[in-house]
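To: structure subgroup
Subject: Chain for Friday's discussion

All,

I'm putting the inputs and outputs inline so they're searchable in the archive.
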Amino acid sequence: MTATLLILVLIALVVVYARRKAQPDLARVALPVLGALALLLVGVRALRSDRTAAIVHVSASYAEAQGYVLGEALADTIPKGSKVLVVRWDTPHEPYPALAEGELQGLLAAVKRADLELVQVGPDPFAPANENPDSVNSLGETGVPVDMIAEWMTTHPDIAAIISFCELHPHVLRKSPPNLPPLYFVAHSDLNRSLYQAVETGKAKAVVLLKPGSDWRTTPPSGSAHDVFAVRYLLLTKDNLTEILAIATAKKK
């Protein structure tokens, strides 16, 4: 919107300047006003650009913490040298590139000692969801579907685990493909029955949950990845099911 207004103001400036001799009184008033308005719009665009960059930077810091903590859980529970499928959104549209890079850097730092083979796949969050051909929803809205995961498993039959920073379609947990490897993923939600059961049954080994009551405006603290992670998230594993359930239940009361 700001860009459109700026273009219109600049066009008006050119027109008034070109007609300044024919309409000197109009030019005398309009040129300073239009010039000031153009400068104002340029300033607004600059402020918005800086704000967007700051938001992306903050989000990327949290994404890196997610990658590290989830990768740490992966490295602790999978044999050394295993092949792992890494699912991240792939699109040039911000903030996705910065988030994907943060997730990857955190993950690489955490699994370095495990010497894992990481195979990256990147669905487009703006692509049409293909579980329902009649749906106008995108993958980013519905989550990664079962058939897409099944296709990746066919291409890479020797993967020992799947780590996903993309939201998974609910059917992945309810109607998963045969021989689905253990899942490690970011849920982008708080605790629910489906997530609880996925971890309880061992289908998912570790799930990143939104922390109840967390403030998304909070700037990430200086410190370790665990310090940053703890501001917004909880890591659900089989070892802390009861503890996380108590936290989620207490918040709802």
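Points worth raising on Friday:
The CA atoms of residues 84 and 118 lie 5 Å apart.
The beta strands are 83-87, 117-121, 161-164, 183-186, 204-210, 233-236.

D.
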